[in-house]
Write a structure and sequence with these properties.
alpha+beta, 276 residues, 13-stranded antiparallel β-sheet
Length: 276
C-alpha cells in the first residue's frame, strides 16, 4: 500500500512538472514595443536617417560655435538673384543679410527689418530666411516641429542614396506647409540634395506641388571640422525622376565661424519692418 501511495505521488509530481513546462511559453511572449517595435527611447528609422546626416556634418561642433558667415553669389536663369554676405547664429535665431547693393536685412529674433527704409521690399522675407536655411539645413533636420517619413532609396548616376521626407508642424517658420525630400550620400553620410516646394507668399500647397524644385550640394570643404558645401545647383525636380534641368547655381566662399556680438543683429536706424 505504501508503495502504491509513493508511486501515485511521483506520478503527480511529474504531471505537475509537465503542466508547468506547457505554461512556460505564455511567460516568454515578446511584447510589442511602441513606435513600431523600437521603444525604450529609441528613435524611428526615419528620424535616425535625419540624425545620421546631422552626425556626418558634425552637428556637435557646429553647435559649439555661436555664429557663422559666408559670401554667396546666386544666379537663376543666368540672372543674379543675390550677391552678398549672410551671417547667422548657428541656431538660426538671428540672421543678417548684407547685399552688395548696400541694402541689409536683419532678423533680430522676433522681427524682420529692411535697411534703408526706402529700399524695395519685394522678396525681402524670402531672402531673409531661404538661403540661410539652405545653408544650415544639414544641422536643422531634427529641430522641434520637424516630422520624418522614410522613402525608398534611389540610384542616380550610378550612386545610391537614402531618402526621407521632411514636413513641419503648424506655425513652424514662415512656410510650415513646405516639404523637403532629403537625399543622403550613402558612402559619406553627407547631404546630397533635396527636392522641395515653396509655399511662401501664396500659402497654396497644392499649387506649389505643381512646380517642385531641387537643390544639389557639392564641392564640400571641411571648415573647423565641419563639412560645408561650397557649390549649390538648383534644378527642376520630381520624386520619380529626381533632379532634372539645371535652373540656377550658387557659389559660397569665405565661410567663417566666430563669436558674433548681439549688436550685429540689432534693428538699423534707417529701416522698416517687413511683415509676413
Amino acid at each position: 500500500m505504501k508503495n502504491l501511495i509513493l508511486l501515485f505521488t511521483v506520478l503527480l509530481l511529474i504531471s505537475c512538472k509537465d503542466e508547468q513546462n506547457k505554461e512556460t511559453p505564455a511567460e516568454e511572449v515578446i511584447m510589442t514595443e511602441p513606435d513600431g517595435g523600437i521603444g525604450d527611447g529609441a528613435v524611428s528609422p526615419a528620424v535616425a536617417f535625419a540624425q545620421g546626416i546631422e552626425n556626418a556634418h558634425n552637428k556637435a561642433d557646429w553647435s559649439k560655435n555661436r555664429a557663422v558667415s559666408f559670401d554667396i553669389s546666386l544666379t537663376f536663369d543666368g540672372q543674379e538673384r543675390l550677391n552678398g554676405k549672410i551671417t547667422s547664429l548657428t541656431n538660426s535665431s538671428k540672421i543678417r543679410v548684407d547685399k552688395n547693393n548696400n541694402t541689409q536685412l536683419i532678423f533680430d529674433g522676433n522681427q524682420v527689418y529692411l535697411c534703408p527704409a526706402d529700399a524695395d521690399e519685394k522678396g525681402a522675407r524670402f531672402d531673409m530666411f531661404t538661403w540661410q536655411y539652405f545653408f544650415s539645413i544639414p544641422f536643422k533636420l531634427t529641430d522641434p516641429g520637424t516630422n520624418w517619413e522614410s522613402l525608398e532609396s534611389v540610384k542616380m548616376s550610378g550612386n545610391n542614396f537614402d531618402v526621407g521626407r521632411l514636413t513641419f508642424g503648424e506655425n513652424i517658420g514662415d512656410a510650415p506647409d513646405d516639404w523637403y525630400v532629403i537625399y543622403q550620400e550613402r558612402e559619406t553620410g553627407l547631404l546630397h540634395g533635396a527636392g522641395y516646394i515653396v509655399t511662401f507668399g501664396s500659402g497654396d500647397q497644392a499649387k506649389a506641388e505643381e512646380n517642385p524644385h531641387g537643390i544639389v550640394y557639392s564641392d564640400y570643404e571641411v571648415i573647423n571640422g565641419i563639412p560645408v558645401a561650397t557649390k549649390w545647383s538648383f534644378h527642376n525636380w520630381n520624386l520619380k525622376d529626381g533632379f532634372g534641368e539645371k535652373i540656377g547655381e550658387a557659389t559660397l566662399s569665405n565661410i567663417v565661424f566666430f563669436n558674433a556680438e548681439d549688436k550685429l543683429f540689432e534693428k538699423p536706424e534707417d529701416s522698416k519692418l517687413i511683415e509676413k
